């Protein structure tokens, strides 16, 4: 990773001194260059050519402070089209830098480049960046670490050391070939061959004992672990054997601290935890483990990635055959643990870090999210739920079709005709018993339909899972905003009784949240960011099948409430 600077060292010294004087009020400008290249990687005795940033897997960290401006030049040296999404960055008025292909930009073509330019406003903590086209994020991803402003501290004990842990998935086959075949046949895609911790599958897989992540720690210290789920299609449980973790942040929002010995992290989510090591040197090694939480009926990679927590002794060398302390994880489909765990997240909601949840609502929406079918092309057989159907997914029974040009461009230049419509249904067009027996007709509609929101609209959105082709948990990610999780429950949402139980005092603020399997989640957000903002399931197989939609937020009256003009190097389709 090259963080380049065009200033002399004397100028840099002066700026550093000036920034300290100003308390980093304006922030610095940080330059990065991301080269997308081919890169041979061997895992599980399989060598595969992957796509990566700067030939690193996982990719390099993007480090900045709250208030900094970040400029990333992305240069595409591969045959695939590419775009990068800065997952969780608000992108206030800079929607052109958000990254989802065909939503806010056309992808970067071979031998082309694009400069992402955005300011990190009012955010600090752990996020992630990843490719946002097809399934390229399987190997094109890395951490975003936003430090507090200079002279500002964490609202918890200063850690001895900070460690980033990225959970991912390894495929022996090219993921692009996997999803391409699945979309062609209409069947479920092949699953991954391993889960990984910082790119390493670990002890339990064949031919992998050398590819095991080791976290070396000292006794009696506190470590801040920045946990990121960059897996393609799986929510993951995480634990460190015989150690308690204190959750202090989720999706770059500080939480009221709570202790747990195991966590759930959905794809796209981040969780910061404090690990307090044992006061004395233990004569043992502790296993770190992650494995899937799966509620659907489809096949999934039912394996476990293992790393090692190793205590460093000041005098002794580590034992060659230490006692291995085994981890304890929930059952694969433990929906009750997941529900209880997610309910523990609460915003700090204090003077310094308020929870500005909208108390009144301008517009209410009710979206069903789940699977469905689409008919097979004539005179062909498919591998979907039946041999005459393909798997599909939808929001309010609309399976979203990405256009061949970027929606934001079409909107900005007044060329929406034939690209997108503004008639996305605000509620299901045909109500049914969403978590009961599924209707006979499970076919979805297709379209590029959006919801238009006037600037500063306060929105309440209830997302309801359906039992069509099986109830399943769906981690929904909203671009361009954080939202408040004001309620959740199992069964069908009751618009009369359930709102009375909403938490409007200290709800968790997130950018990605799981719609419970066979249940619902209620969120609120303020549409204070003009542009086109993608919302989709962060299980990429469901995104590929159409579980996605877009919000179009209009400009506000003030100059700083308007979408900025597009940059001159905006890629063309």
Account of the protein in words:
- The protein is built from five helices and 33 strands.
- The chain has 573 residues and is mainly beta.
- The strands form seven sheets. Strands 10-9-12-17-14-15 form a six-stranded mixed beta sheet, with no helix packed on it. Strands 11, 13, 16, 18, 19 and 20 form a six-stranded mixed beta sheet that branches. A six-stranded mixed beta sheet has the order 22-21-26-31-28-29.
- The chain folds into three domains: 29-147, Sandwich (Immunoglobulin-like), CATH 2.60.40; 161-343, Immunoglobulin-like (Sandwich), CATH 2.60.40.420; 363-553, Immunoglobulin-like (Sandwich), CATH 2.60.40.
- The model is unreliable at 1-24 (pLDDT under 50).
- 8% of the residues lie in helices and 38% in strands.
- It is an enzyme of class 1 (oxidoreductase).
- One of its GO terms (molecular function) is copper ion binding.
- InterPro entries: Cu-oxidase-like_N, Cu-oxidase_2nd, Cu-oxidase_C, Cu-oxidase_fam, Cu_oxidase_CS, Cu_oxidase_Cu_BS, Cupredoxin, CuRO_1_LCC.
List the helices and strands and how they pair.
Blueprint: H1 9-22, E1 29-43, E2 46-53, E3 62-65, E4 69-76, E5 84-87, E6 113-119, E7 125-131, E8 141-147, E9 161-170, H2 175-185, E10 194-197, E11 214-217, E12 222-229, E13 235-240, E14 245-250, E15 253-260, E16 262-265, E17 270-276, E18 285-293, E19 305-311, E20 324-325, H3 335-343, E21 363-375, E22 389-395, E23 398-400, H4 407-412, E24 445-447, E25 450-453, E26 457-465, E27 474-478, E28 483-490, E29 508-510, E30 512-515, E31 519-527, E32 531-537, H5 540-545, E33 548-553
Parallel strand pairs: 1-4, 3-8, 9-12, 11-19, 18-20, 21-26, 23-24, 25-33
Antiparallel strand pairs: 1-2, 4-6, 5-7, 7-8, 9-10, 12-17, 13-16, 13-18, 14-15, 14-17, 18-19, 21-22, 26-31, 27-30, 27-32, 28-29, 28-31, 32-33
């Amino acid at each position: 990773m090259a963080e380049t600077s065009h200033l002399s060292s004397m100028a840099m010294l002066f700026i550093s001194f000036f920034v300290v004087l100003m308390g980093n009020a304006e922030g610095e400008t940080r330059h990065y260059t991301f080269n997308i290249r081919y890169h041979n990687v061997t895992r599980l005795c399989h060598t595969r050519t992957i796509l990566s940033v700067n030939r690193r897997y996982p990719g390099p960290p993007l480090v900045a402070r709250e208030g900094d401006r970040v400029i990333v030049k992305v240069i595409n040296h591969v045959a695939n089209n590419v775009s990068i999404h800065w997952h969780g960055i608000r992108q206030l008025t800079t929607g052109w830098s958000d990254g989802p292909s065909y939503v806010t930009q056309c992808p970067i073509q071979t031998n082309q480049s694009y400069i992402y330019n955005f300011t990190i406003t009012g955010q600090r903590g752990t996020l992630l960046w990843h490719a946002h086209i097809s399934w390229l994020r399987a190997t094109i991803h890395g951490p975003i670490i936003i430090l507090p402003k200079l002279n500002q501290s964490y609202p918890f004990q200063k850690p001895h050391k900070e460690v980033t842990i990225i959970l991912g998935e390894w495929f022996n086959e090219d993921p692009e070939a996997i999803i391409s075949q699945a979309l062609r046949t209409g069947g479920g895609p092949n699953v991954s061959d391993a889960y990984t911790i910082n790119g390493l599958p670990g002890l339990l897989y064949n031919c992998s004992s050398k590819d095991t992540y080791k976290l070396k720690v000292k006794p009696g210290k506190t470590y801040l672990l920045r946990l990121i789920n960059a897996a393609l299609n799986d929510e993951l449980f995480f634990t460190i054997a015989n150690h308690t973790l204190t959750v202090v942040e989720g999706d770059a929002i500080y939480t009221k601290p709570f202790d747990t010995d195991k966590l759930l992290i959905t794809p796209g989510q981040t969780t910061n935890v404090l690990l307090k090591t044992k006061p004395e040197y233990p004569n043992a090694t502790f296993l770190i483990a992650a494995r899937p939480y799966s509620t659907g009926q489809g096949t999934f990679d039912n394996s476990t990635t293992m790393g090692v927590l190793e205590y460093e002794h000041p005098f002794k060398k580590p034992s060659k055959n230490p006692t291995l302390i085994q981890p304890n994880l929930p059952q694969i489909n433990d929906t009750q643990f997941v529900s209880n765990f997610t309910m523990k997240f609460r915003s700090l909601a204090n003077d310094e870090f308020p929870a500005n949840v909208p108390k009144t609502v301008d517009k209410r929406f009710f979206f069903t999210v789940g699977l469905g079918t689409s008919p097979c092309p004539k005179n062909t057989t498919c591998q979907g739920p039946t041999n005459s159907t393909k798997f599909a997914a939808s929001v309010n029974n609309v399976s979203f079709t990405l256009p061949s040009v970027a929606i934001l461009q079409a909107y900005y230049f007044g060329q929406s005709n034939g690209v997108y419509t503004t008639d996305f249904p605000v509620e299901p067009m045909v109500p049914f018993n969403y978590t009961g027996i599924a209707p006979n007709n499970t076919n979805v509609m297709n379209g590029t339909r959006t919801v238009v929101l006037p600037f500063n609209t306060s929105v309440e959105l209830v997302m309801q899972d359906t039992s069509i082709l099986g109830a399943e948990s769906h981690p929904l990610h909203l671009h361009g905003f954080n939202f408040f999780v004001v309620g959740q429950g199992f069964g069908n949402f009751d618009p009369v009784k359930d709102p009375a139980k909403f938490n409007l005092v200290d709800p968790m603020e997130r950018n990605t949240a799981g719609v419970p399997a066979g249940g619902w989640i209620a969120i609120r957000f303020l549409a204070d960011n003009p542009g086109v903002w993608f919302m989709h399931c962060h299980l990429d197989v469901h995104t590929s099948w159409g579980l996605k939609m877009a919000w179009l937020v209009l400009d506000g009256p003030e100059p700083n409430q308007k979408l900025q003009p597009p940059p001159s190097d905006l890629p063309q389709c």
